Amino acid sequence: MSYFRYLLIVLLLLLACSCQQKKLPKQTALADSLDRWFKIANNDSVAVATRKFYTDKAFAVVSKYPNNLESRTYYFKIAARYYNINALENYKIVTKRIIYNSKIKNDTTNIAEGYSFLGDYFNRKLAFDSAYINYDKSESFYIMSQDYSNAAKNIIYQARVQFIEKDYVGSEKSLFGALKFLKKTHHKELTYDAFNMLGVIYAELNEYHKSLEYHNRALKLLEDRIAFPKKEIYISSSLNNIGLVYQNKGDHKTAISYFKKALAYKDLFKVDCWTYALLINNLGYSELKMGKFNQLPKLFYMSLQISDSLGLVTSKISSKLHLSEYYALMNDSLKAYEFGFEALTDSKQNKLSKQILLSLKQMSIIDYKNKVSYFEDYIQISDSLQLAERQIRNNLGRVEYETDELATEKATLLNQRKTIIYIALTIILIAILISIIRIQSSKNRELRLVQQKQHANEEIYRLMLDQQQQRDEGRRQEKKRIARELHDGVMGQLTAIRLNLFALSRKHDPETIQNALGHIDKIQDVEKEIRGIAYDLTATIDEGTDYMEVITNIFSGLEQHSSIRFSMQVKGETDWNKVSVEVKIALCRMLQEALQNIIKYAQAENVSLTTRGEQHRLFITVQDDGVGFDLKKVRKGLGLRNMQERAREIGGSITITTAPGNGTSLEFTLPLQGNL
After folding, report:
1. Of 49, 230, 339, 640, whose CB count within 10 A is highest?
2. Phi, psi (rounded to 5 degrees) for 670
3. DSSP letter for each residue of 28-58
4. Beta carbons of 618 and 667 less than 8 angstroms apart
5. Where are the domains of the chain?
């Protein structure tokens, strides 16, 4: 099944390729045919009917094309051919098709060019308000496309419409608007058109100085540029315009010099018959005004013949008026009337208001009988023309105002759109910023957690070290305690037992033997104390023990087994039940250590023990009358250090008072209440 599916796909692809291969030659053949038809339609030597036939064929073929850039380009070529053969209605249909198709594809450039073409249609039809509107639309779309050169071109077209309708101030304003765009684009041809037209406007306003200034600027622009299309034709046209300014000023001599300079271009008649016809007509008129009749009326007839062949109505009327004026000056009233009347008739047929007024003025001069009638017609037409011109200027102003309003609304909508875009971008940026802040905050939290974990691990490690140190310190303290207990407790009792048993070496009476046997029993107590130390037990002193009896027993052996006499004095009452067991044990150990030191080093005969209780403290003094010692010279042994450490541990202190030969006094200051 998959094999057949694969085979079907391959066959379809081959079929599609073959269709494309067949279609390509067909499209190429059509394109070749169109190019051939366009060439025939654009040939001025071919009959107008034939040119229109081939243009119609091209239009029929292109109408079947899809709406793309190629078809719209062909439509522009077709429209241009219709315009050249004056088939204006066909031209209008094609132009509207261009605008419609371009709007569907949002082709701004071709929409703009389409409106410019439509403006040319209305301009040719003398519907100047409609022409102005379409040129204005074209300008707007070109600005939208940022094509400032073509935008300036359409502004110049608007200025020409305003000039025709005698809105000279509006035309001047439009031209300066075009020049602002042209400064950006440096389009020399259009800049020339603007300068040239400003010269013409200022001539109509009788501002001849400004007129000459802009005509000369246009001429200098041509002379400075080496590569300028149709440069000689433009130069001849500018020289003709300058000559007309001097002609209007009445300086016909200077005007003639410019006309002749323009006619010096030998190929002008072949290249531009219209400019040639204007030049010889203007030259003939200035020579007429100066009384030079050598080339007259030949120049006027030549101009009339060329204008008539080219269909230049205004130029033909101008030549007839000049002929009428010439023959009037030559006193040939019949020919003067004939040419004047023909000029008036042509002007009325073509509805050329300016030429009608000039013809009426000429007829009022040469037809004396009807002078009043011509003059009344002149006034009436002049007034109606002024009213019509005023209305047209108002219409143009209204169009301009409405266009400005549309531009303002468009700018407002554009600003609103920009505001919405800015707000949206701001919201997006804020959202992104918040996201970044949240992500960064999350990362910071993770970092803090990692740091906290690290700190916790460090703290655990430190606690483990502290615990180890505490264990080590506990072991060390326990070793010290055991050493003290052995030294102060066990050693003290063994010393006392040894001294009591030593009496057997001197006495053998039954009493001494009986006392010795009692001390032998105390060896079992020493054994128990050693066992208690081994198992970290406390001493045998507890809460119910009579502590004064314990102290008395410590010193009783001293009096029985040595020559040292013991005395004890109690000052005040001491509630030993308020003294903690730990303090009692520590005091017992300190007294035992003091007794051992007296026996070993003091060589004393008398030892006294004094106790005195005051508020929360207990003072115990052990004093002997032995040899004493020098505290500064004698090194502190383990026994003395043990006593001081025990005193500090229970919150007490020891004060030693001694001197060589004066005995020794130990004063223990201990807390009466409270625990270690």
Report:
1. 339
2. -125, 150
3. HHHHHHHHHHHHHHT-TTS-HHHHHHHHHHH
4. no
5. 542-671
CA angle 449-454-460, nearest 5°? Answer: 125
Q: Using alpha carbons, list the distances in angstroms from residue 154 to 1, 178, 216, 575.
A: 67, 8, 24, 126
Q: Which residues of 401-437 are buried (b: 16+ CB within 10 A; e: fewer)?
A: eebeeeeeeeeeeeeeeeeeeeeeeeeeeeeeeeeee
| The CATH fold of domain 542-671 | Heat Shock Protein 90 (3.30.565)
What would the pLDDT profile of 131-142 be if each residue is shown by its tens digit?
Answer: 999 999 999 899
What SS3 class is residue 367? coil
Residues 255/246, Cβ–Cβ less than 8 Å:
yes
pTM: 0.53
In angstroms, the CA 17 to CA 436 distance is: 54
Residue-wise pLDDT tens digits, 389-414? 555 555 555 555 555 565 666 667 77
Give the count of beta carbons closer than 10 Å to the beta carbon of residue 48.
13
| Own/partner pairs, 162-167, CB within 8 angstroms, 24+ separation | 162/132, 162/393, 162/396, 163/197, 163/200, 163/201, 163/204, 164/128, 165/128, 165/389, 165/392, 165/393, 165/396, 166/204, 166/389, 166/393, 167/389, 167/392, 167/393, 167/396
